[in-house]
What does this fold into?
Amino acid sequence: MASTKELNVEDKLRAIYDLQLIDSRIDEIRNVRGELPLEVEDLEDEVAGLSTRSEKLKNDLETIEDLIKVKKNAIDEHKESIKRYTKQQETVRNNREFNSLTKEVEFQELEIQLAEKQIKEMKASIEHKKEIIAQSKERLETKSNHLKHKKSELDAIMSETAKEEAFLSEKSAEYQALIEVRLLAAYNRIRSSVRNGLAVVSIERGASAGSFFTIPPQTQVEIAARKKIITDEHSGRILVDSVLAEEEKEKMEKLFAKF
It folds into this structure.
């Protein structure tokens, strides 16, 4: 095809309509994937979050179990202290020493009671965390299986369309290079502002494709003459005549047929 500087208006119209057909085909391919890539990404984040939470809960369990061991050791030490103080009471010389040792025994017994209470609370915490871990494990397995299924689905679609999309993206870049900067900027601006991505449309039954607004006969004649770039006053889309559109569609269908 001719370089950008050598393109006449008709060549520009053909180039930009071809670009539209290529970009629309890329849109179709991406629409087939739909929300799958986002679904996969969300599921990956959720699975990672559940895995992290499960690991934290397991670490919490280990920490609590270590604390229980510490408390049990402390209880044994308190019991040894009680034995020692009780034995010392047998050899005291006065009531003051006896009472002092009695207070020590009582203190050790209170420490034992406190430690036992803490152990009981920690054991209850362990059971609660074990329940949460079991629930998290079940949810993690469900989400992991769902992720595996969705990734497989996405991979299948990607393997079918990746080559075609890459080829068409290259073609899109080639056609963009042929179009003057201002016209290409207008094309991209219109494309990004409309829901279906159609910036260039043909005339169908006296109106621009997808529109109910009739185009004046004189304007239709000017569009068919291909002497200047004309846009639809209602939608802002670039307009081409139906004959040119059919010719370019036929040409592009041969290109698409390679896949």
